[in-house]
Amino acid sequence: MKLNNCLNRILFNKEQRVKNQGELIDKYNSALLSLTINIPGATKLSDDSKYIYEVALQELKNLGLKELDQILTSNEAGCEALICVEIDAIKLKTLTSKIEENHPLGRFMDIDVIDKNKQILSRKIPRKCYICDTNAKECARSQKHALKELLDHISTKVHDYKTSI
After folding, report:
1. What count of other Cβ atoms lies within 10 Å of the Cβ of residue 67?
2. Is 84 a domain residue?
3. At what angle are helices 47-62 and 147-164 packed, to 10 degrees?
4. Low-confidence ranges of the chain (pLDDT < 50)
5. In a domain, 137, yes or no
6. Are 22 and 29 in contact, with CB atoms under 8 Å apart?
7. Residue 112: which domain range?
8. From residue 122, how far is each of 101, 113, 126, 151 by CA, in Å?
9. Number of domains the chain contains
10. Farthest-apart Cα atoms in the chain, separation
11. What is the distance between the alpha carbons of residues 153 and 156, in angstroms, rounded to a whole number?
12. In what order do the strands lie in the sheet with 78-85?
């Protein structure tokens, strides 16, 4: 029953996120950043996920974009940020992809860019698994790695990042 409740929370959050995304885009007629944290398993709100979220928010702030509005949420379904910004969506996707690809914790950040027509700009190259070089979706579908192995890997990366700064 607990897993079902968790899935329901995650699905409800996703529906609410899509609703809020549409409302912000309609209100500002502008590009939108949608930040979530890639954490496998039922527990979406952990010390590691909160830390990655804060780092991601700081990295987005460092881009120096003109923010029009934002909705920041943190609950048992995870941490999320919706940030409406004044910039061309294609340029924004280029900037956010660099964070995801180059930041030591970027692999755990999911930064979607939605244009003013409510179209999600997709990445050109599929993401790789946290642990191996396999396509992440294929790896997850086959359950190649145990949940504990994935979470331990994330914790190690977060610890390594904290000690490097």
Report:
1. 12
2. yes
3. 50
4. 1
5. no
6. no
7. 2-124
8. 14, 8, 9, 26
9. 1
10. 44
11. 5
12. 67-75, 78-85, 31-37, 109-114, 120-121
Handedness of CA 20, 23, 28, 29 (dihedral sign): positive
Place of tokens 């700081």: 58
Residue 70 belongs to domain with CATH number = 3.30.70.1150
Q: Which two tokens stand for residue 70?
A: 């934002």
pLDDT at 93: 96
- The reply to whether 131 falls in a domain is no
CA-closest candidate to residue 57, choices 82, 23, 78, 25? 82
Q: Distance between CA 109 and CA 161 in Å, rounded?
A: 14
Q: What pLDDT is recorded for position 3? A: 54
Report if residue 152 sits inside a domain: no
In this structure, are residues 126 and 135 in contact, taking their beta carbons and an 8 Å threshold?
A: yes
How many angstroms from the chain centroid is the CA of residue 42? 16
What is this structure's pTM? Answer: 0.92
Q: Are 92 and 24 within 8 A, CB to CB?
A: no
